[in-house]
What does this fold into?
Amino acid sequence: MKLFKRITTLMLVAMAITFISSCGDDDPPSVPGPDKNIYELVKAKAGYDITVQAIDKAGLKAILSSTNSITFFPPSNDALLAAGIDVGGMTADELKSWLEYHIVEGSYTKDNLPNGGYIKSKFLDTLNGRPVAIFVEYPAGIIELNGYQTIQTKEATNGYVHFMVDALTPLSIFGHIAINPDLAIYKTAVQITGTHRALLEAEENKTVFATNQKGMEAFLNAQSKPITSIEPSVRRAMLENTTIDGEGLFAIELSAVQTTMGLDLDITNSGKTLNGDISVTTKDIQCSNGVLHIINDVIIN
It folds into this structure.
């Protein structure tokens, strides 16, 4: 009897080992990780050799080959030519500044890029010395940066590459207003208010608080009018009361400042609240000519 029990136990153990081994055999094979860094991926991509020449001359090969986690949005050869980028005729510093607007610190994929939000490039604006923003969205499931589509994404050993057909250009305050769907009504207000668009496109430093769709719709519903029927003086007040000339200010710097029309503005609650009851939904969008903040209400007086 004891011998029978021993044989039975050994058979059960053998069957368990066989079952576990067979389960292991069914596991899917492991997928190899990336074996090229960002620079090597761009160099291997057809149609990007002029971009590689620009990278080399700008001295950015080391950054794109490093172990630091970065994301690169390289423009194609055609994009460089269309943008008037002459690798031979430009200085290393000029090429570096231009290319740095296509580089972002951190590894970004579609999973963690902020749809309808902003990422900060390595390019520093000449007015305030801060990283200039890039607007991100993917309305059709394709990543778009400042309205330009990416065509392919590849993982590198040090981050990600999102290949582009077009080149990115730092946007002015009006450029960022125009590209963001959440500022569509505000954009219309700017466009039909005489010189205000020119002000927001001019190179001079400034700070602007743009009202989002929800805030604009609430204001227009209360007026029972479309934005095109609002009195010009009211539209002008709405825009000039949220514009500060001469300074590009981040939220942390905004305390008891005056707008173009002399209205006092004050941001509290770590940059989240304007004048006590207006929410700052997005702050510190560094543009080529100043800083844009997005708020959820209209300021008339």
Observations:
- The chain has eleven helices and 15 strands.
